Amino acid sequence: ILQEEAGDLPLPPSVDVVPHDPDAVEGCELLVVLGGDGTLLRGAEFARRSGVPMLGINLGRVGFLAEAERDDLDKVVDRVVTKAYEVEERMTLDVLVREDGHIVHTDWAMNEASVEKRARERMIEVVTEVDGRPVSGFGCDGVVCATPTGSTAYAFSAGGPVVWPEVEALLMVPISAHALFAKPLVTSPKSVLAVEVQPKTPHGVLWCDGRRTVELPAGARVEVRRGAIPVRLARLHHAPFTDRLVAKFALPVAGWRGAPR
Hints:
The protein is built from five helices and 17 strands. Strand 14 (about 205-210) and strand 15 (about 210-215) form a beta hairpin. It has two domains: about 5-90 and about 230-250, Rossmann fold, CATH 3.40.50.10330; about 95-225, Tumour Suppressor Smad4 (Sandwich). It has a six-stranded antiparallel beta sheet with strand order 6-5-16-13-8-9, with no helix packed on it. It has helices spanning about 5, 35-50, 75-80, 155, 240-250; strands at about 30-35, 55-60, 70, 85-90, 95-100, 100-110, 110-115, 125-130, 135-140, 140-145, 170-175, 185, 195, 205-210, 210-215, 220-225, 230-235. The mean pLDDT is about 90. The protein is about 15% helix and about 35% strand.
């Protein structure tokens, strides 16, 4: 239990309270995350570096990354105690910011890194690149660079495609772009994506997983590539990703032609 959360909980003496420190999970076998997808992204900040797998229990609304619901908690405990789970790896992003050619900030993301406008009333002008080659320049509210895991999060809301998590790829999705060609792109996992804030434009901001942020002055360049360290998720079920997609988004699979075969 994180120290900052413990004050609101009636905890028994047998529960250890640990500080808000990424090293706190060193030596742990499993990190059980109670909450929604945002809580799991927070847990990833602790678990990624040490390689500890995470098991999500959904207490939120969608819980796309969660493996079980709150009603399944007793069964989950049994599976954890008997180690009846498997571990899969999810691709991450390594992110860096350059100013005047110098690296001024580095970060990472599990879902997405987004370059966005800072002022609500004005767009930012950007040029997007793939592997050092310019693709398009336009005014927009932002650009999302995402992993397949993040394709069902912010990138999805911006109009990007759903990419199955076992597919190795990077996504680049413009947000409300004022351009004739500003389509979502799916690139090689070896590609380097870049978004450059143009010199004569309002400042922007970089968000990593919607949690960590840094200001981007005019002329700043954000580069995104496949992360060196994946995030590990514990899985209890072998259900196809299609079933998870249908269930979490409540998709009308019956359709007007009747029940699926």
